[in-house]
Amino acid sequence: MRVETLPQLLFFATRKQPNPKAFQRKVNGVYEALPASAFERLCLETGLGLRSLGLAPGDRIAILARSGVDWAVCDFAIQLAGGLSVPIYPTLLTGPIARILEHAGCRAVFVEDDEQAAKVLSL
User: How many other C-beta atoms are found inside a 10 Å radius of the C-beta of residue 53?
Assistant: First the structure.
């Protein structure tokens, strides 16, 4: 398999190097293993969800969240759906967030939690 894109790298890694403990994810304050196959499934399902919502190739989707497994799922899902990721630091205030979203022409935003959602909803 020739790997030329990040989504292809995802499939290569999850299928050729299956790992039941590929990621650690915090759930209710406790770290749990997330198998590579489950990570791939989450990426695919989220990407399909974006396409079902009307995401077109080249559309920009922001990710307003801290780094972690969920951030990576969003990033890969956007790429699998043909979109472009626009990462935004969750420590930013609403003014800079609004400018980034407008300048990038984002069609949607993934948010980490209620605090980040409140920032976006106040724009």
Answer: 11
